[in-house]
Structure formats: structure tokens, C-alpha cells
Design brief:
The complex is a heterodimer of chains A (about 425) and B (about 150). Chain A has 14 helices and 17 strands. By secondary structure, chain A is an alpha/beta fold. Chain B contains six helices and three strands; from the N terminus they run ααβββαααα. The chains are: A alpha/beta (about 425), B alpha+beta (about 150).
Chain lengths: ~425, ~150
């Protein structure tokens, strides 16, 4: 196993610039210059960077342990299986789940599709009595919110279109907060699923999970949490939040692309029909039928993403050693600095909560008279990487009267200097484009 | 390559002037045969609708409505200035030339004799992510032209 860097001893003191500068040494990609300026990476909301320990974990796996898992009696097969299942325990523990409640997926999008396709399978004739609790029929309602990423909207739309169920959504107010009064009217006896994001990838808001779960529970609906923007940035405990399912992506939390996870309550997972079928997920197979293993194997057909799972565990170790509460606090500070700075620039409108109100370390904004693409291009010329476009949330942008915005998003390796370099450049945008 | 080579002054000016913008505000000329095309860039949500009207073998009018970045808006404005008064064959030649330059990753220089003000978009070809922005209205115009001729 690759050891965690020595300087990452969990400290009680708050994370600050000095420690962040040491953390940055673990991220080779951040050392480069772009367009003649030191790279300022403020696009971790889209994808984060990998520390050396994560890169080393993946390399070590391929150099020392690579083999198929859950089969074969040879030494490497045992080593690989152990690394793979240890990784599962580490990541499950990171989000407060049991090992058998964590299913590997490619990313959060696949996790959500796994759920919706399983529910679709449960709705088909011959699905069996165990699956009946997931079966959807005309008149059933699937509730999402107006701020969802397309990944937590389109799979539900498709599921509704195939089963006759209806998608309803909880609206947001002009400040980007969910209208909980409206939610109480929308979530009712017909609601079968409530799916919502923990933290908005555009607004930066952290949604009131407890209040929403309470509404879903009183209606007897399943709760699905999109934890893409929370798992990487704040302490997450799926049991304490009392959600039935949660999804997140590894590449947003210091791991490589191609790995993510779905959490599900064990009792639910073991009653759900499989999504993908094939090798590794079966008990007895005849030419006519097959029996399926319990979770997690039940949902892991075919050879898995073993090295990526190992790398995700290394990423989670890096985060845990730094301390999720400390990362959360530091990013909250950076988020406030972003909003305060942006709000002080004439012609810039920040989406979501105003300065002083809770938000994660990201801010999406509109620049009067300058398209987001042009803003991003200008910032890039100063070595600053941000995201531009609709951030896979077209309905949210439409609700706010916009088609595209610019988004700066932080992580544990960003300093206040990063934020200030960004703010200084953002202040020059309108003059450059003569807006 | 500097930002100023991408955002040449002529592009910034056209992005504001938006010659030809206002399709919805006016009907197509009655004496002409017209075609219309809507194009969308799904990565950023930019969209444009272009109407091309042809009379006597010439482009009598080009009008558009769109929402997008300065490159896409300026490109539509420049196209309007170029296209109006051209023969159908001339417009096709210009569109082909523009496409060749834009897709060349900086290898094919723009010929100002052929492209006029559109030669200012030469720098865009080095920014792979922005080529689609510049091409959006031209693709729409090509499609609209085809429709006008079969209408």
C-alpha cells in the first residue's frame, strides 16, 4: 500500500494557505504555467486533480497486484481481490455505509442509470414479487428539483416515459433556494421516488436534506441523493442523512475518471432486479435461467474497474487524512471570498446565495454584455481555468433567464491567491470586450 | 498566440453591431425564394436561426436571430455583409473557403480576397473549442441556402 504523505497528519487547526501550499506539492499538474502565467485551477467542480499518492496507488496495483478479482486461486488473484475489496470498505466507510452497500460504477451518471434501469426492470411483466416495491405504473410520480444536473433528471424522465409515471419538480426561488412549501404540496401519496442534489453544481447551495427526507418518508417514497458535489467537499454520512440511495463520482474527489459509486440500503439492493447481467454476479446458471448474488456483486457484472477502485480508495484516504471538516471549512471560506469579490465587480451577477449565506466553494456568475464562452477564454489567457456553459443544468439556467454562465469552483488545493487572481481577471473582462 | 489575435478589433465590433440580426422582426422578401435553418451548439447552448433569400440567382437578403458568444455573433454579422449581393455560387465558394480555414488548426491561411472581413476569424482555427462558434451561422446559412433553392 502507498503511504499517505507525511505532512497530511490530521490537525485540529483550520486549513490555511500555508498548509494548502504544502498540499499543492502533491499535485504535479498544478505546478505548470498556462499562457505564460501560473495555472490557477478553478474547475474542480467539473473534475479534480490527482495527488501523487493516488497516481502511485494505481501504478503500484498494476506493477504488483494486477489480476482478475473474485476468481482464480493464484497469488495475484488473491492480492487483487483483497485490494479491490479493501478499497470498497475504505470508500464505504468514507460515506458512512457498510461494505456491501457500496456498488462500483463508472461515475454518478451510471449510478443513477443503474437505479432507473433496475426500477424499469422491476416494472416489466414477470419481475417477481420481491421487485414489486420498485415497480412503477401510470399515475406514479417521480419528484426531482429544478436545480438538478441533467444526470439526475434525464434518467428519471426516461424511466417515466417507459412506465407511464410522471416527473414532477420542486421549484426554486429567485435566490436559488428550494421552495419547501411547494415541495410539501408536490410530495404526496403518489410520490414513489424523491431524487435531489445534496449541493448544487451551479448555485453552490447545500440543500436541506433532513426536511426533504422527512417529506419523502411521510409519503413512503424512496430517497435518492446526488452527492457529486458534496462527497468531495464536506463530511458525508449517508446513514445519518437517512437517504435510501446516494451516488458520487471519483474524478471529482481526487481519483481518476472511470470510477464512482452507488450507495444503497442493503435491504433495498438485495430486492432490486439487476441492471447489467453476465459474469461475476451469478449463483447458479443453466441454459434457461440464472440466480443472482446479493449486493454488491449483484450489480457488478463483468470484470470491474479494479485499479480505479484502488485509486479512489487512495483519494479517499488523502481526503480523510486532511480532514473533511477542515476541507469543508476552508472551501466555505474560499466560496465566500469568491462571492464577495464577484459581487463587488460592476456588471457581474452571482447565481445562488448572496455573500454571507452558506455555500460550497463554487460560484457561477453572469457578466453583463459578455458571453460566458468569452469570459472563459479571457480568463484562460491569464492561466485561469473555469467552466463555462450551462453546466449540464439547462432547466436551471432557463429558470434564471440565462443560457450560459461562468463557474469558478475550488478544492482543498486552492489558495486565497488563486481566488484573488481570478477576481482580478474577472474585473477586467467587461473592459476587454468593451461591454 | 495572444488573445488579441483571436479577438481582433473587427470581431469585437461586429459582435456588437450584429448586422443582419432581426429575422423575427421582418418577413422574408416576397419576390424571393427563402430558406431557414436553426443550428444549436449543445455544449454551450448557443443557437442561431438564419434565413437566406434568393432572387434572380443572387442572395437578396440574409437575416438571423441568435444568442451566443462574441465569436458566433460577429461571425453571423460578417457573413451577412458578405453574402448579400453574392451569387449562389459565390456564397458557396466563400462558405467552403471559410470552413477550410476554420478547420485547418491554423494551417490554412485565410485569403482576404475571398473572405473579406471573415479573414479576421483565421485565429479562431487555433482554438479547437471555438471553431464551432464561428461556424454556427455559416452552417445554418448553407442549409438555408439549400432550402431556398429547392423551395
Amino acid at each position: 500500500m502507498v503511504a499517505t504523505p507525511a505532512h497530511l497528519r490530521r490537525s485540529a487547526a483550520a486549513l490555511g494557505n500555508e498548509e494548502v501550499l504544502r498540499i499543492r506539492n502533491d499535485f504535479p499538474i498544478l505546478q505548470q504555467h498556462v499562457n505564460g502565467r501560473p495555472l490557477v485551477y478553478l474547475d474542480s467542480g467539473a473534475t479534480s486533480q490527482n495527488p501523487l499518492s493516488v497516481l502511485a496507488a494505481e501504478q503500484e496495483f498494476y506493477e504488483q497486484r494486477n489480476s482478475a478479482v473474485h476468481r482464480g486461486a493464484h497469488h495475484l488473484a488473491v492480492e487483487a481481490t483483497e485490494a479491490f475489496e479493501n478499497a470498497r470498505e475504505t470508500v464505504a466507510d468514507f460515506v458512512g455505509a457498510e461494505w456491501d452497500e457500496l456498488i462500483w460504477t463508472s461515475n454518478a451518471t451510471e449510478g443513477l442509470n443503474l437505479l432507473t434501469y433496475s426500477f424499469l426492470n422491476a416494472s416489466l411483466p414477470g419481475a417477481g414479487p420481491e421487485a414489486a416495491r420498485f415497480a412503477l405504473a401510470p399515475g406514479d410520480e417521480l419528484v426531482v428539483t429544478e436545480m438538478e444536473h441533467h444526470a439526475n433528471l434525464i434518467p428519471w424522465q426516461e424511466l417515466a416515459a417507459r412506465t407511464g409515471a410522471v416527473v414532477k419538480f420542486i421549484p426554486i426561488d429567485d435566490a436559488g433556494a428550494l421552495d419547501l412549501e411547494a415541495a410539501a404540496g408536490i410530495i404526496g401519496p403518489r410520490t414513489r421516488v424523491l431524487a435531489f442534489t445534496h449541493a448544487s453544481n451551479v448555485l453552490g447551495t447545500i440543500n436541506p436534506v433532513a426536511a426533504l427526507v422527512a417529506l419523502a418518508r411521510s409519503a413512503g417514497a424512496l430517497v435518492v441523493l446526488d452527492a457529486c458535489q458534496s462527497a468531495p467537499h464536506l463530511p458525508l454520512d449517508v446513514k445519518a442523512l437517512d437517504v435510501d440511495f446516494a451516488v458520487f463520482s471519483g474524478h471529482k474527489m481526487l481519483a481518476p475518471t472511470g470510477i464512482g459509486a452507488l450507495y444503497g440500503r442493503s435491504e433495498l439492493l438485495n430486492a432490486m432486479p439487476p441492471f447489467l447481467t453476465g459474469g461475476s454476479m451469478i449463483t447458479t446458471v443453466t441454459m434457461e435461467r440464472a440466480g443472482f448474488l446479493p449486493s454488491p456483486q449483484r450489480f457488478e457484472a463483468g470484470t470491474q474497474r479494479i485499479s480505479q477502485a484502488v485509486a479512489l480508495a487512495a483519494a479517499v484516504n488523502y481526503l480523510s487524512e486532511t480532514g473533511m471538516d477542515r476541507i469543508h471549512a476552508w472551501e466555505a471560506e474560499l466560496g465566500q471570498r469568491l462571492v464577495r469579490g464577484l459581487e463587488s465587480i460592476p456588471g457581474i451577477r452571482v447565481l445562488g446565495p448572496a455573500a454571507g449565506q452558506e455555500r460550497i466553494g463554487l460560484a457561477a456568475f453572469d457578466v453583463a454584455g459578455v458571453h460566458a464562452h468569452d469570459v472563459g477564454q479571457f480568463l484562460d489567457s491569464r492561466g485561469i481555468a473555469v467552466r463555462v456553459g450551462h453546466h449540464c443544468a439547462q432547466p436551471l439556467h432557463r429558470r434564471l433567464g440565462l443560457t450560459a454562465t461562468t463557474r469558478a469552483s475550488t478544492y482543498l488545493y486552492n489558495t486565497t491567491d488563486d481566488v484573488d487572481a481570478f477576481l482580478n481577471a474577472a474585473a477586467d473582462v467587461r473592459a476587454y470586450f468593451q461591454a | 498566440m495572444s488573445l488579441d489575435q483571436l479577438y481582433q478589433q473587427i470581431i469585437l465590433e461586429h459582435a456588437k453591431a450584429r448586422h443582419g440580426s432581426g429575422l423575427a422582426a421582418a418577413d422574408a422578401p416576397k419576390e424571393a425564394s427563402s430558406g431557414q435553418s436553426h443550428q444549436l451548439n449543445p455544449t454551450c447552448g448557443d443557437e442561431i436561426t438564419v434565413r437566406v433569400s434568393v432572387a434572380g440567382g443572387k442572395v437578396s437578403e440574409l437575416r438571423w436571430d441568435g444568442d451566443g458568444c462574441s465569436i458566433s455573433m460577429a461571425s453571423a454579422s460578417v457573413l451577412t455583409d458578405l453574402a448579400e449581393g453574392m451569387t449562389v455560387a459565390e456564397l458557396r465558394t466563400v462558405i467552403d473557403s471559410f470552413r477550410e480555414v476554420l478547420r485547418s488548426r491554423g494551417k490554412v491561411p485565410a485569403d482576404p480576397e475571398v473572405l473579406g472581413d471573415a479573414a479576421a476569424f483565421e485565429g479562431v482555427s487555433r482554438y479547437a473549442a471555438r471553431v464551432k462558434c464561428a461556424m454556427l451561422s455559416w452552417v445554418a446559412a448553407e442549409d438555408a441556402l439549400g432550402q431556398a433553392l429547392t423551395a
